[in-house]
Amino acid sequence: MVADKDDLDLLICRSVEVPDPLTAVEAWTVAMGNVKGVAAVYFRLRDWLITRLGGKPFIPANVDAPSPEHWGAQGSGLVVTFGDERTLRVSSRDALREGVMVLTMSPSKRRAVITISVRAYSARGRWVVRFLGPLFAWVVAHKLAKLPERLHKT
To answer: In whole angstroms, what is the distance from residue 92 CA to residue 57 CA?
Structure first.
């Protein structure tokens, strides 16, 4: 987490069972690849609003299956790091907020757990997080819930 629980403006934790063992990068790629529908509209709305208020957009596709030579690399305001094949960490910091998303696979690699924590730096940042946070929680829950279904389509 980016801060103590009491200092966070947003904390989301969701999990889902997957039918086949996956690494964290595989789970992220399947869940967040090819964003369409309501999720795509949400990401466009969020990025439009955040960039006008001085923040940086977060584009999930920019984290697709980074190879080891890109670990720790920054792109679109993101830093991607890995603890091991079961853990993917994406962090972002801009003028409005600081956030961390951690995707962890269980030891069997059959349960994906995602935790997102965000701390805002100002009243404007807190407004953005409180306005967009519940929508982001829905997008994350929806994308994770669809993960088993998407695995059978790939």
So the answer is: 9
Q: Where exactly are the structural domains of the chain? A: 5-64+71-153
pTM of the model: 0.77
**Contact of 51 with 147, CB cutoff 8 Å:** no
Q: How far is residue 11's CA from residue 136's CA, in Å, rounded to a whole number?
A: 11
User: 5-64+71-153 belongs to which CATH class?
Assistant: alpha beta
pLDDT tens digits, one per residue of 120-143: 998 888 888 888 888 877 787 777
- Contact residues for 127 (Cβ-Cβ < 8 A; gap 6+): none
Contact indicator for 88, 24 with CB cutoff of 8 Å:
yes
Contact 150, 54 (CB under 8 A): no
Look at residue 132 and give its three-state secondary structure.
helix
- DSSP tag of 143: H
DSSP 77: T
